[in-house]
Amino acid sequence: MSANGIVSGNFYFIEDNYFADFPDPQLMSNKDLAGDQERNRPCFYSLKDEATDLYWMIPISSQIDKFQRHYDKKLKKYGDVDTLVFGFVLGKKKAFLIQNMFPVTRDYIKNEYIDRATAQPVRIKASLQEELLRKAAEKNESKRDKANSVNLSSRFGDERLVSEYSSL
After folding, report:
1. The organism sits in which domain of life (predicted)?
2. 91, 101, 142, 157: which has the fewest C-beta neighbours closer than 10 Å?
3. 116 DSSP assignment
């Protein structure tokens, strides 16, 4: 656990004011109500950039068919896909949308995604974490080459992340 309570490699929800402060139609905005019940959606997988204290948030989606078609199309065209990763969260297959990752500060993080059955933070397997870290770093390095953005490859503390969750 970090000093401010945010753990790189865990899932979080983002405050509504982030989407107001940084409007972007590509971002998955909050969907807080389902009928008359409040719920947090979507959740985001976090990676901390140690050099800047920013958290890079990777949205996840349950729309597997939609993103599988997108993945298959890109795989056929390019031979590799570095913008989508599929993995399991709480036993259900999810799409991790690396192409839509975005940076936030601690102030924009609303709360952590907690498994209701165990009352513990939701976690994923170490192998999936490693793949997400690698692809997020590659995507950011590609952006950096184009737009002078931050290099994430050595800033996520990947050894700590992998060892912390290697038991999953």
Report:
1. Bacteria
2. 91
3. T
Tell me if 4 is assigned to some domain.
Answer: no
Question: How far is it, in rounded angstroms, from Cα 96 to Cα 44?
Answer: 9
As for how many domains the chain has, the answer is: 1
Cβ-contact 45, 90 below 8 angstroms: no
CB-based contacts of 53: which residues, under 8 Å, 6+ apart? 105, 106
Q: What is the pLDDT of residues 134-147, one digit of tens each?
A: 999 887 776 555 54
What's the angle, vertex CA 48, arms to CA 53 and CA 129, rounded to 5?
175
Domain span including residue 118: 11-165
Evaluate whether residue 25 is within a structural domain: yes
The CA distance from 12 to 111, in Å, is 6
Please report whether residue 59 resides in a domain.
yes
pLDDT single digits (tens) 30-62: 555 444 544 555 899 999 988 788 999 999 999
Length reported for the chain: 168
145 in any annotated domain: yes
CATH number at residue 61: 3.10.129.130
The partner residues of 49 in beta bridges, in order of sequence, read 54
> pTM value?
0.78
Report long-range pairs for 1-5 (Cβ below 8 Å, ≥24 apart): 2/48, 4/106, 5/112
